[in-house]
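Subject: mismatched residue count in predicted assembly?

I count 512 residues in my input, but I want to confirm that the predicted structure covers every chain. Input:
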Amino acid sequence: MHDPFVAFETELDRAHGLEDRLDAAQAALAAYGFTSMIYDYTPVPFAHDGELITPSLLKLRNIEANMADLWCRGGYYQIDPVQLVAAKSATPFVWSYAQPEGSALGRVMAPRHAPVVSYLKDTRMTCGVTVPIHLSGGDFATFTGIRIDPEGDFGAALRQHLAAISLIGHIFHGAVYPDFDPRIRTCQHVKLTAKEIECLRLTAQGLTAKQIAHKLDRAVGTINLHLTLAIKKLGAKNRVQAIARAAHYRLLDGAC
Amino acid sequence: MHDPFVAFETELDRAHGLEDRLDAAQAALAAYGFTSMIYDYTPVPFAHDGELITPSLLKLRNIEANMADLWCRGGYYQIDPVQLVAAKSATPFVWSYAQPEGSALGRVMAPRHAPVVSYLKDTRMTCGVTVPIHLSGGDFATFTGIRIDPEGDFGAALRQHLAAISLIGHIFHGAVYPDFDPRIRTCQHVKLTAKEIECLRLTAQGLTAKQIAHKLDRAVGTINLHLTLAIKKLGAKNRVQAIARAAHYRLLDGAC
DNA sequence: GGCAAAGCTAGCAAATTTACTAGGGGGTGG
DNA sequence: CCACCCCCTAGTAAATTTGCTAGCTTTGCC
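Triage response: the counts match. Full output below for your records.
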């Protein structure tokens, strides 16, 4: 029996680069009746204040050109209720803005989400499947299939495909993730200099500023200033809180 | 068309408690030819030194009685290569000890894993599917179907069911997770007292020992001692490293 | 009921951090 | 080519942390 997932994996192996693989994923979704696709990746889903962080990678297929701008620069990502559900759950889910009542989406929707809901209704992308992909390092991706102008019962029909779309999403992510460059993989929510990050990591490993100064062959004053500037950029009150936030933003590269 | 996943969800809704739901999941797996099931959950998959942490919940169905003891108290969990692959990946996968070559399992297997491999061969549980479930909080579960005495081509046949088993695993976890009690959800790798944790959390929020003393109406010496003891238990060199490790073990409850 | 262990209480000297100060060099844009 | 901004360099007084000290209370077990 021909396995569609093996065929998809073969397609992904043959594709060269992210854009080709996105096209392959789009074709795989089309076989299930989807017209559009969204894939995004973020090293850290939430800021320390609980706000969703704009992803470092957002890719669209067959979607209005202004969506990327609204989501990445217009603040729409932070008020996207589907993204909120995905960030807090690990289970793939069908969503519909036409009939959100009784669903996970319906439970999180609030007035602040209205601009996103309006936009998706205007562009007739009111129905889809989202696969949350939480990764072992705390990073996070979503893989979404959307149907433009869905028929009345398309949402119900989607449930038949949830298992397949979920696996396609995981296979796709597994294929593209190894090629992400360091800028995509690193949280840009707070921008620290290389010296600031280096000093934070050594501090998280238990070295005092004096020990770091000796290790890096620099004056203690220099190390203290790097740490102080990092504390300020992280909005922390002191060095300890800065380390807690740096850990949250996964800037420590596992150092502890 | 009858949706087996909706039927499974209904079954889980009707079940009372974790054990009943495990039975329901076992029955769902049996429909795909599996004979046995494993589900486990851990608030933190890895210790700060990279070693796998024994899960706070491990449930087995139709598996040798001594497996729980070997895995939870005998150190086998730490040398289980399937668990290592699952902890580092998010994609569900088929595994076979009969023919591990060329698979993710084969790439991680090393001599230190031999006791686990021997045990699974002795108990004829050499083939299965594992669904890693990484959660948004950093916690982690696995859902595994196993076939005892698999026929020669069972591994290949399993690929047909990977999508279905993956969704079943996610649905099952989603059904049981809300009822986990705090002891299961809290990392027990390092045991700190309530006062130690309280002082660590307040420290991570940027309060000095003096400020904490004022807030808790205690002497500074008292706060300092709680923090010092926590530092020792975490094996840290100082307060900053203790916070980095507490964050790693998710003892801070998001505090930063 | 008694004993031991664990947890919480608190003080102090030495070491470290915090929060300010200031200058030089490199890169980018006009 | 020059000016401005950013990053890296470094010093110091006041505040805080570290790492030890010791005693009291509570809890659990025999």
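The first helix of chain A runs from residue 4 to 14. Marking this ticket as 'not a bug'.
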